[in-house]
Structure formats: structure tokens, C-alpha cells
Amino acid sequence: MRMRFQNGRAGFTLIELLVVIAIIAVLIALLLPAVQSAREAARRIQCTNNMKQIGLALMNYQDAFGSFPLGGVEPPLGSSWGQAMRSTRISWRALVLPFLEQGNLYNAVNFSVSMDGQRDYGSYGPGAGEMYTAWVTVANVWLCPSDGNNGGGLLPWLTTSNPTGQGAGIVTPPTNPATGQPATVIAVTNYAGSFGDNYSGGPLCGGCLPWETYPGTNLPPGTPRIGWNGYWGTVYGDAPNFAVGGGSLRGYFDYQTVQFVKLASVTDGTSNTLMIGEVLPVQSADSNFWNENGCCAGTTIPINWNSNTVPASAPNCAFQWQGPVLGCRFGAAEKGFKSMHPGGANFGMGDGSVRFLKASISIPTYAALGSRAGGEVISSDAY
Prior knowledge:
This protein has 383 residues and is α+β, with helices and mostly antiparallel strands. 20% of the residues lie in helices and 9% in strands.
């Protein structure tokens, strides 16, 4: 009996093909978040390493000179804002460059001129154009890889701020000596020093800062919830008559009060005190690398509080000259710590370690971590 075989091609039916496609789509959907999470974990590790290097540089600076650097190099304000305008106004970041193996960049800095680009309170030296090469240089150690909006350390310099705010139209960028034209970019960073739990806006603001009210309490809107007299490291008053007075610097870095902080003055313990933290330049009035204005942030503002969600017409908006203008960023001193890491931000402690603090941390606990000699008792499980 002859058997006949019929040749045929094996293949997928339409239903089988759809099932395979569906399975692949599900696998991709499951895999992508894991890949993104792994990438963010790597970026967060790099950010942690950056902060460890900066913290170690600050400790070495303290060992070499007997104190931590000033937030900004300038004389006491006295009675005139113009007096400060004639000083170098260079930030602590520039002072620690030799301890970050950036001696060549440090040597390119002209410490005899003012780093400030404003011309609204009198003339004061040739300005940052005297060190233009350094002015437009930011090493990767000062940038968080999770922040995709930091421009790689250089953001556009906007020549005007909020039209109704302080500083409108008065900011002049340094001149590029090679072209004779004003700079179009400004160097920024993702790391700022901590002035602790001093008021970020101070009593002079009169309750116009939206974070200054305890959530879930009966305090009226605008009531300061926590903090100590003085801001920017205890500066009072409105321009052009800023004056030093009342209270003392609670954290590590002042702005304009020449308050040196030594390791011996950190009586709360270096492992219990915040020294540096993350900031986002596009959400800050000023995060420029070289200038003391914007070099520090405070711990009375909730972590990751987004000032760009507040309309630009809100009270006390000021100095919005870098990055895209997205709402109100308030003043340069009214800057809190924030990051692009989900749920919180990295902080460098006084002992050189780096810790990740959740955005949900209790504000009193957060403020207590900002003070170096407040005598607060903080449980290790509080953060």
C-alpha cells in the first residue's frame, strides 16, 4: 500500500502571532522600569561620590586653614550694600578647588576682582571678565547626573528677571575678552552649602513665603513655622541697606557676615549636621558657581519644594536670570535643597558621609539637622 505525503509549510496563525507580540510587549513593559531604575541608581551613586569628594575637600580645607571657608569672601556689610559690591564676593566653592585636584582652575581665578555681575549699587572693579576662562568652566564633580536641566554646568544668562521683581533689568553679565561681547551663559552647580535653620526669607518678608506655614495646624497663613533670626547667615533689611544684626549663623556657611565656622564649633556632632546638599539651578533664583549670591541654602524650606509652581506674580519674586523662567523663584537666599532623585535629596554631613533624606522628613527634624550647635536630640530613626 503506497503512502502519500503532502508537503506543507509550518507557520504561525494570526492568533499565535498576536499572542507572541503581546508577550513581548509585556516583557518590555516590565523591563523598562527596571532599566530606568538601574540607571537612576547609577546616577545617584555618582552624585553620592561627588558629594563625598566635596565633603572631603571641605574637611581638608578646615585642616589646612583651621576653619571652613566663608560662604562668600567679602567684608562685613556695615551701612552700605556698595561696600560688599566692591569685594571679591567669590563663593566657598572656588576656595576648595585645590583640594579637589582642580589647582589649574583655581590658578585661573583672579581673586582681586569682584565676581558679581550686578551694576545696580555702584561700580566696583572690572568684574568676572578678568577670569573669563574660569568663569565658564565647571568640573563634573559639581554636577548631579540626574539633573538633565543643568546644561552640563552652563545655562543661558538672562538679562532680565521678573519685570515686577527686585533686580528687573539690572543684571549685566561679564564681558568675554576674546570677543568683547557680554557672556551668554553662566556657570551653575547642583551643590550648595548649608546656612542651617536660619530663616530663608527672614522676618523682613512679612509672611510672603508660601512654605512658612505648618500644614495641618491652626497657624494663620504666613506664620513662620520654624527657624532662627536672620537669613543668609543673619543678614537683615532690604537692599540697598542690608545690615548685620541679631542672632548667629546656625549652619556652616554665611553669605555676608564673615562668620567663620570651625570643627570645634560643631557641637551637635559632625555626623548629625548637614554641611552641603543638592539644589536645582532651574528652580533657584541663583545657583551660579563662582558668586557667593546663591552659594547656600537653608533647612527651613521643605526638601524638593518646587518654587517654579508658584506664579511669577507672587510677592517677593526676584532675580530670575538663569535658565528658563518658570514661575517664581523668590530671592537668592530663599533657596531650599532639592534634587531630581525620586523622593528626596542627597546631603553631605559634617563627617564627610553622604545620606539620602526623604522629602517627607519632619521639618523640625530637618531643621535640627541643619543646626551645628542647637543642642537638639535627634533619634537615628527620625530620618
